[in-house]
Amino acid sequence: MGEPAGIGGEIALRAWLRRRDDEVPPFYTIDDPERLVGLARQFGWDVPVRAIQLPESALSTFAEALPVLPVGGAPLARPGQPDPGDAALVLRAIDLAVAAARDGHAAAIVTNPINKDALYRAGFRHPGHTEYLAELAGTGAAAVMMLVCPELRVVPVTIHHALREAIELLSTAAIVYAGRVVDAALRRDFCIAAPRLAVAGLNPHAGEAGGLGREDIDIVAPAVAALREAGIDARGPLAADTMFHPAARRGYDAALCMYHDQALIPIKTIDFDGGVNVTLGLPFIRTSPDHGTAFDIAGRGIARADSLIAALRLAGAMAARRFSR
After folding, report:
1. Are residues 195 and 171 in the same domain?
2. Given its phi and psi angles, is residue 146 left (phi above 0), alpha (psi -120 to 50 degrees) or beta?
3. Which backbone phi and psi does 276 adopt, to 5 degrees?
4. Final residue in a domain of this structure, among 270, 299, 316
5. 83 and 165 both lie in a single domain
6. Segment 229-266, tens digit of pLDDT
7. For a tag site, which of 174, 187, 245, 301 has the least CB within 10 Å?
């Protein structure tokens, strides 16, 4: 469902409308069916909405109607105006999705954007989706966030932290852990037999041999060495400002970046509408559109579903690769 004050419902309806032209794999939503009926009617979209009781029913329903597993309540929010009272429904939708994936009733999870501020005001204690999903997974392992588009894959080693805190949290162990998880995921879910990882430096020009800070010497370089010792094709630390032009991108399969914006600025610049957020290190597949709730256009029927469709298609492709073995 995502944040009900945002565009999640609209793009889910649009994705169903484009199911044939864009080869969207069958999906069901966890939401309030009446809310989606109202949105479709408001925009004049011919989307039959059908409530289902079991995820398995989605396969026989999807061709003719949008299957909706009721989330168990009606949201309070209005378009562009989130209500903390909806936090329980937002989290319940995530919980139901994880339960379905873990029990084998769904091949993957695709989450619509949430509004963390509204969740925080309701007592939510996680920085975001990624960390909450890692807790629900129950493995005790940290999840790794990867952003994907056809031209680029990027991984922020530190994620939802203020920049000062991200620098303090950055460690050799964290970079090595992310590199190991990414290497395994590229092999298993992307069918890349010998992944190549480019590791960005933290400081401008990767620190200029210590002239612009020692973090790249003391933290990043040892991580690259450890990854290479583990048999992973990693190189760096590299100057981040020259890592993302077309010729550079052809030299690696994924880029490990040291903080949030170092990773997300290039991918959102290259493919803002088609980027996909993938959570690695979980026992189930999870993707998400690489954009936010878009409160400024919510309720107007103009939101683009491209990123959600890309997330659905990538989740389907990952599931096909994983479960065919």
Report:
1. yes
2. beta
3. -130, 135
4. 270
5. no
6. 999 999 999 999 999 999 999 999 999 999 999 999 99
7. 245
Count structural domains, the chain.
2
* Structure tokens, 56: 């398995």
The answer to whether residues 133 and 9 belong to one domain is yes
Is 312 in the same domain as 241? no
Which pLDDT tens digit goes with each residue over 125-177?
777 777 888 888 887 788 899 999 999 999 999 988 899 999 999 999 999 99
For residues 292 and 213, membership in a common domain is answered with no
Model's pTM, two decimal places? Answer: 0.89
Cα(134)–Cα(280) distance, integer angstroms: 10
CA dihedral of 108, 110, 115, 119, whole degrees rounded to 10 = -20
Q: Which residues contact 232 (CB under 8 A, 6 or more apart)?
A: 179, 180, 183, 195, 197
Whether residues 25 and 108 share a domain: the answer is yes
- Looking at the fold, whether 296 and 234 belong to one and the same domain comes out as no
169 located within any domain: yes
